[in-house]
From TrEMBL, chain A:
One of its GO terms (cellular component) is early endosome membrane. This is Sorting nexin 7. PANTHER family: SORTING NEXIN-4 (PTHR45949), SORTING NEXIN-7 (PTHR45949:SF3). The gene is SNX7. Keywords: Protein transport, Transport. Residues 1-55 are annotated as: Disordered. InterPro entries: AH/BAR_dom_sf, BAR_SNX7, PX_dom, PX_dom_sf, PX_SNX7. It holds the Pfam family PX. CDD domains: BAR_SNX7, PX_SNX7. The lineage of its organism: Eukaryota, Metazoa, Chordata, Craniata, Vertebrata. Residues 36-45 have a biased composition (Gly residues).
TrEMBL record, chain B:
Its main location: membrane. It comes from Bos taurus. Gene3D superfamilies: Arfaptin homology (AH) domain/BAR domain, Phox-like domain. It is found in: Early endosome membrane. It is a peripheral membrane protein. This is Sorting nexin-4. It comes from the Eukaryota. Residues 1-53 are annotated as: Disordered. The gene is SNX4.
Length: 471, 459
């Protein structure tokens, strides 16, 4: 796969070309064209990419200039087939480095800034007389001074994660806390402890903890630290501290009452934010549904396709001259099935979880918005009380002062976190769809190669037979 | 039914008794071209020999289809589709074609033609017609005969039928076929006047023969098995293909739903807006691309269907052989029993049971004169029977020879055509993959390059 692409990607061909000619232009190395080259590949695509869609003939010639010692058979196949492909008006020299082009914009985390590494794995089932539940192993590696050690291993269950999330929400009401996977999946689940369900949940929990670790504020939260490090008994006694259930309930009733007031006096920027959240939530939910449906349809397509190949084998049993051709067709179909399976697993690993996480995030955002509004409403009600009652003015003024600080803090925290969240969201979504596009291209490339090699084998045979006849 | 040598009146020139064992160089080369060109949409070539001296090429095409209304046999209004058949003759020297005939025919007339050919050429694997009703449909295709896609595919199928007949070394010379192409009015009457319906073998008789025949030619037994297998496997293939098409259609169309959502989402995004728009557009393009893909596949399915129906034609030839063989066996048996009767009467011994024998025993012997008369009658019958048996034998062997020659021709055609069909399937897949790759790159290029993320913000 050493050929250079065409069509508007000529811009990236610029810096890439020089890199390519110095080294070897191979797809396997293409993946490293991105960031490590000192940002040369990284910045230019964003900066000076011209309008795509125009085929630059000069880029087509690059194929000859570059070192093409690998996959020359591919090149021959393409030029031979040019006569057969009468339907395609675009060049038979397909850009077979599309994967490499896509990979140029994938960015890796800057590893040097991370000092807290968390993994969630090894789900284990525990059976007691009262209940059955699953725990997950959590391994933490860190170089931070405030941690007593550099490595920790604990076991936690879903309830514990829930506790952590609530503590974080309490401590930082207007920060965007990462979402937890759902408690139950309503439709299609018979048993809570189905393997797929557990694996999906494990991955989501892993994401959850890592997002907290990456958050500039949340990562230093004390409860978070205890969650990661405390052994069983210490952890359960720690959990029992803090405001009880009744007080929490009381808070939420007040909260609902207040939040209604908060909406009216919402500053402009938060109105915009709210608008965005509403629309975003709607769209991401739709995308989630559509994506699930696509997965289901593809599954059914694959099931039918798997039956299609073997029929050709069956047929070949009653034929003589046609037997080989039929068997080849069957094997091509089987290969395409495998490629489909691969694409589907990519879909379910790269796209579905990301979209679903953002569905949960959108719910989280609405809750954050409400909490901000509550805090604002608290202030507003005190201000109102001050203007109307005129009693205890000093006390009220003092309280108002504190509340004003509180509101300002909350608003600033939200604003900053909002920008950060938006940036992450864009990266994640782009990355997810880029992955999907990559998977698709890979799939089509594999199918293309399969059928093209079938075609050459058939036309070669034809030429062989023709020359035999002449003898 | 005995028809080894075609009736001279039905041909333009008397056909040699064994047309296929002496390959006619002119015909052979034309046939080779015909089978290749038979699937093209454009006009194909057929050859007619006149006087064996000059070869005039003709081009046949079914160029149009038209909806018509008329009154049927019961004087009720009906709607049907008529097809325009155009015949052009091509001057061998300058290659220019002149329209010689053009007329309209409906599907039932094609059926009539084919039934006629089946009766008068039982040793030939007669090309099949396109299906009467749409079968192996997947959900998008309607099973309605008036549906324009169906009509179009049928038009191509009918043209293909005519080209196959025209390129067959024997069938192409049939007069009724010639009149089908040239004589619009009165053709139906002409066909019916041949009385071919009466000459057709009864289905019951044929079925009986199939079960009771003792010694059919082994090759025909094998051929029958082959045609059964072919029919079974192609049906299965077409069924699964239809299901696969249905599912694939679902996948593509669901993707289309993304289009609008992305577009609406892009309205609230700043940096990512263009990328989302582009992705949305890509989804729309993707979703609509399935229509062309499946239409192409439908043509592929039609090629397979032709050979599905050809399997039936093969079986018809086998059935004819079985019938002739059974007829022969019965005639031989009849002759043998008559000979035995004769012998018994002559020698006076009764080896076989007969009612006459019993009554004679019970009620008295017959007179010598009576016996003589009976012997004489039997001897005449035996003589006649031996003649018949001889000619039946000859006919039978002739049939087997001719039929087998056509079957060999058919086998080559089948192998060639099906291989081409499979290759065309691969070509379809290749072009589909290339287009898909191109679409992804084109549309998603904006997503990748216009809004490259500027890295994650950490602290």
């Amino acid at each position: 796969m050493g050929k250079l692409g065409e069509a508007g990607l000529a811009a990236t061909a610029g810096p890439a070309r020089t890199l390519g000619m110095e080294g070897e232009c191979r797809a396997s190395q293409a993946r490293s064209w991105g960031l490590p080259a000192g940002g040369a590949g990284g910045d230019s695509p964003g900066g000076d990419a011209p309008l795509p869609g125009s085929i630059s003939s000069s880029s087509l010639l690059q194929a000859e200039v570059l070192d093409l010692d690998e996959d020359e058979d591919d090149l021959e196949v393409f030029s031979k087939d040019a006569s057969l492909m009468d339907m395609n008006s675009f060049s038979p020299l397909m850009p077979t480095s599309p994967l490499s082009m896509i990979n140029q914009v994938k960015f890796e985390d800057e590893p040097d800034l991370k000092d807290l590494f968390i993994t969630v794995d090894e789900p284990e089932s525990h059976v007691t007389t009262i209940e059955t539940f699953i725990t997950y192993r959590i391994i933490t590696k860190t170089s931070r001074g405030e941690f007593d050690s550099s490595e920790f291993e604990v076991r936690r269950r879903y309830q514990d994660f829930l506790w952590l999330k609530e503590k974080l929400e309490e401590a930082h009401p207007t920060l965007i806390i990462p979402p937890l996977p759902e408690k139950f999946i309503v439709k299609g689940m018979v048993e809570r402890f189905n393997d797929d369900f557990i694996e999906t949940r494990r991955k989501a929990l892993h994401k959850f903890l890592n997002r907290i670790a990456d958050h500039p504020t949340l990562t230093f939260n004390e409860d978070f630290k205890i969650f990661l490090t405390a052994q069983a008994s210490e952890f359960s006694s720690h959990k029992k501290q803090g405001p009880g259930l009744l007080s929490r309930m009381g808070q939420s009733v007040r909260a609902v009452a207040l939040s209604m007031r908060g909406v009216k006096s919402r500053p402009e920027e938060f109105m915009e934010m709210n608008n965005f959240i509403e629309i975003f939530s709607q769209k991401i939910n739709l995308i989630d549904k559509i994506s699930q449906r696509i997965y289901k349809e593809e599954r059914e397509y694959l099931d039918e396709m798997k039956e299609y190949g073997p029929i050709h084998i069956l047929w070949s049993a009653s034929e003589e001259d046609l037997a080989d051709t039929l068997k080849s067709v069957a094997s091509c179909i089987d290969k395409c099935c495998k490629a489909t399976e691969k694409r589907m697993s990519g879909f379910s690993e790269a796209l579905l979880p990301v979209v679903h996480e953002y569905v949960l995030y959108s719910e989280m955002l609405m809750a954050v918005m409400k909490r901000r509004d509550q805090i604002q409403a608290e202030l507003d009600s005190k201000v109102e009380a001050l203007t109307s009652k005129k009693a205890d003015t000093d006390l009220l003024t003092e309280e108002i002062g504190k509340l004003e600080d509180k509101v300002e803090c909350a608003n600033n925290a939200l604003k900053a976190d909002w920008e950060r969240w938006k940036q992450n969201m864009q990266n994640d979504i782009k990355s997810a769809f880029t992955n999907m596009a990559e998977e698709n291209i890979l799939y089509y490339e594999q199918c293309l190669a399969t059928w093209e090699s079938f075609l050459t084998s058939q036309t070669d045979l034809h030429l062989e037979e023709a020359s035999e006849d002449k003898l | 039914m005995e028809q080894a040598a075609p009736d001279p009146e039905r041909l333009w020139q008397p056909a040699p008794l064994e047309p296929l064992s002496h390959p006619d160089a002119g015909l052979e080369s034309m046939v080779g071209e015909e089978t290749k060109g038979a699937r093209d949409e454009g006009p194909g070539d057929g050859t007619m020999t006149e006087n064996n001296f000059s070869l005039k090429k003709i081009e046949i095409s079914v160029s149009e289809a038209e909806k018509r209304t008329g009154r049927n046999a019961m004087n009720m209004q009906e709607t049907y589709t008529a097809y325009l058949i155009e015949t052009r003759s091509v001057e061998h020297n300058d290659g220019q074609s002149v329209l010689t005939d053009s007329l309209w025919r409906r599907y039932s007339e094609f059926e009539l033609l084919r039934n006629y050919l089946l009766v008068y050429y039982p040793h030939i694997v007669v090309p099949p017609l396109p299906e009467k009703r749409a079968e192996f449909v997947w959900h998008k295709l309607s099973a309605d005969n008036m549906d324009p896609d169906f009509v179009e595919r049928r038009r191509i199928g009918l043209e293909n039928f005519l080209l196959r007949v025209a390129s067959h070394p024997i069938l192409c010379r049939d007069k009724i076929f010639y009149l089908f192409l040239t004589q619009e009015g009165n053709w139906k009457e002409t066909v019916n006047e041949t009385g071919f319906q009466l000459k057709a073998d009864s289905r019951l008789k044929a079925l009986n023969a199939t079960f009771r025949v003792k010694n059919p030619d082994k090759r025909f037994i094998e051929l029958k098995h082959y045609s059964d297998e072919l029919q079974s496997v192609i049906s299965h293939l077409l069924r699964v293909r239809a299901r696969v098409a249905d599912r694939l259609y679902g996948v593509y169309k669901v993707h289309g739903n993304y289009g609008r959502v992305f577009s609406e989402w892009s309205a609230i995004e700043k940096e990512m807006g263009d990328g989302l728009q582009s992705a949305g557009h890509h989804m729309d393009v993707y979703a609509s691309s399935i229509d062309d893909i499946l239409e192409d596949e439908e043509h592929y399915a039609d090629q397979l269907k032709e050979y599905l129906f050809y399997a039936e034609a093969l079986r018809a030839v086998c059935r004819k052989h079985e019938l002739m063989q059974y007829d022969l066996e019965m005639a031989a048996q009849d002759l043998a029993s008559k000979k035995q009767q004769c012998e018994e009467l002559a020698t006076g011994t009764v080896r076989t049971f007969s009612l006459k024998g019993m009554t004679t025993k019970l009620f008295g012997q017959e007179t010598p004169e009576q016996r003589e008369a009976r012997i004489k009658m039997l001897e005449e019958q035996i003589k006649e029977g031996e003649q018949q048996l001889k000619s039946k034998n000859l006919e039978g062997r002739e049939f087997v020879r001719n039929a087998w020659a056509d079957i060999e021709r058919f086998k080559e055609q089948k192998n060639h055509d099906l291989k081409e069909a499979l290759i065309s399937y691969a070509v379809m897949q290749i072009s589909m993959c290339k287009k898909a790759i191109w679409d992804v790159l084109k549309d998603c290029a904006v997503l990748f390059f216009f809004c490259a993320p500027s890295g994650r913000k950490k602290s």
